[in-house]
Amino acid sequence: ALYVEFTKFRAEFFSLGNLFWSYDFEPGDDINLILNTALDEIVVPEGLSFVKWVTYSDKDVPAVLPNEDIDIFAKYELVDIEYLDIVGNVPNYEIYSYGEYDSVTYTADMPIISGDEYEIFYSYLWTINGVEQTGTSSSLAVSGLDVGTYEIKVVATATATSIGTVSREATLTLTVTPASMNVSAVGGTITYDGQAHNITVNSLPGDVVEYKVEGGDWTSNLELVNTGTYNVYYRVLRANYNAFECSEPVTLTITKK
Questions:
Q1: How many alpha carbons fall within 13 Å on the CB side of residue 48?
Q2: Cα 97 to Cα 90: distance, rounded to the nearest angstrom
Q3: Among 39, 96, 194, 213, which is least packed by CB within 10 angstroms?
Q4: What is each CA distance from 255 to 51, 190, 194, 215, in whole angstroms?
Q5: Which of 215, 203, 214, 86 is nearest to 154 (CA)?
Q6: Are 66 and 99 in contact (CB under 8 A)?
Q7: Which residues contact 87 (CB under 8 A, 6 or more apart)?
Q8: What is the mean pLDDT of each run of 10 residues along the chain (257 residues)?
């Protein structure tokens, strides 16, 4: 640590064990004269700022040099984190459609300081819509979000042992939009058998499928029994997707025996 060691007749300023400034004095000299001169020679460690000179236990330096040895230390504080942004690893990380990416990684973009005299430790707290996420690293992998709007927030904290702590936060609004789907269907020709029939829609489990014939209403249970040719329209509702509605009907023909 940077410190100042006074003997009775000489002021010696050390940093990491190396003498870089000295001053000869007489007991009773103005200490401020010595300190202000030394301050011009001191290189403050990166990420810290000089606060004041203190003696042991953060006591203020006396106005005049006492007639005895005294140790004087430079007291520092952490400078504020200059900036903090949230960036993603895909081009449109603020708005994308459901299922467009398997995962998107968000990273706290900020200056990282690694000094020689003082080690600065960084930690990160991530939340999504106020829910704390697991881990304290500078990156957060996000996957499986349903359609909606999300507030992604990170609080970055820098800590220097025996110096202090500073924090800064950043927020990003993420919008997941519905995805598009294309669903096919098959009609055909069958012989009348007195049973109810319908077209076959290639839907997925959990889908809601609705049908209608020309001039009819939408229904989830279309039953075609009598002979004839039916033009059947269909639409599919699926979570996190835009509803799909066919542009052309599918034909189902029931012939006589």
A1: 26
A2: 13
A3: 194
A4: 95, 6, 11, 22
A5: 86
A6: no
A7: 93, 106, 107, 109
A8: 48 58 70 74 79 75 66 82 96 96 96 79 96 93 97 96 92 98 97 96 97 94 96 98 97 95
